[in-house]
Design goal:
Blueprint lengths: L9 E6 L5 E7 L2 E8 L5 H16 L8 E5 L5 H18 L3 E4 L1 H18 L11 E8 L4 E7 L5 E9 L6 H4 L3 E5 L1 H4 L11 E4 L10 H9 L29
Parallel strand pairs: 1-4, 4-5, 6-9, 9-10
Antiparallel strand pairs: 1-2, 2-3, 6-7, 7-8
Helix pairs in contact: 1-2
């Protein structure tokens, strides 16, 4: 199926910050096409195939793009490098600007839409939404997550940080709010908060390029582009290489 080429602000969005790999085409904030694999790795093999697929689905050429947006982190060191290097390569090849979208910010938009649809099914919960906080969380190994905190209007009320999760986490926030946790970092917290009536863990929520649409469009409208040559992902923490497993190396 091919779309009518009445395109305005066509942005190609790339998401590789977590085990989920996805690509979306956004036209004036509306998602036209999306390819994604929420599980596994091999982002370097999938990303170009996904890009080719969404371009063909939309029936456009690379010259029709107005910008490329990339998930900037935090997240997997390797995943972020793959996404950013791919985005830069495209920008250089077709002379388009680069937009950087904070991964947790995009997740907040996506998570809020999922949670809102569930709340709407239960009228008794409608008033509770305005008293809730939303916490996208990315797995940072062991019981650590990268998280930020947003209100119901997707305003960030606490900056991104690395958090060690235990039963006392978010105790100050729970006094006046109900908390929604989502993302692969939240999945591993489900058991810890299973009996906590002030925290709801939304399971199986994953990063997706389609959640970048609103932010990417806003940044495009405001000409908030990053320098293609010098832009680096937001790792949050320094990369620590693991012990080599090749025989003969220590």
């Amino acid at each position: 199926m091919y779309f009518c080429k009445n395109f305005v602000n066509m942005i190609l969005c790339l998401e590789t910050a977590t085990p989920s790999c996805s690509v979306a085409l956004v036209n004036n904030g509306e998602v036209l096409a999306c390819e994604e694999d929420p599980k596994g790795q091999n982002h370097s093999e999938k990303i170009t195939l996904f890009i080719d697929s969404v371009m063909k689905k939309a029936g456009i050429s690379y010259d029709d793009l107005d910008a490329v947006a990339v998930s900037m982190g935090p997240g997997s060191y390797t995943g972020l490098r793959i996404g950013v290097s791919t985005a830069k390569g495209l920008c250089y090849a077709v002379s388009k600007p680069l937009i950087a979208v904070e991964t947790l910010y995009a997740m907040a938009y996506g998570g809020l839409s999922v949670i809102s649809s569930e709340v709407e099914k239960s009228p008794a919960n409608n008033s509770a939404r305005n008293q809730s906080l939303f916490i996208p969380a990315i797995d940072a190994r062991r019981m650590e997550v990268y998280a930020a905190i947003f209100d119901e209007n997707v305003n960030k009320i606490k900056d991104t940080e690395a958090v060690i999760i235990d039963e006392n986490s978010f105790a100050d926030l729970k006094k006046d709010h109900h908390l929604y946790l989502f993302g692969d970092g939240a999945d591993k917290c489900a058991e810890i908060f299973a009996n906590d009536d002030k925290i709801t863990v939304i399971k199986d929520f994953y990063c997706s390029a389609k959640y970048m649409n609103t932010i990417a469009q806003q940044k495009f409208n405001n000409s908030e582009f990053v320098d293609v040559a010098y832009f680096e992902p937001f790792y949050l923490k320094d990369f620590v290489p693991g012990t080599p497993t090749v025989k003969g190396l220590k």
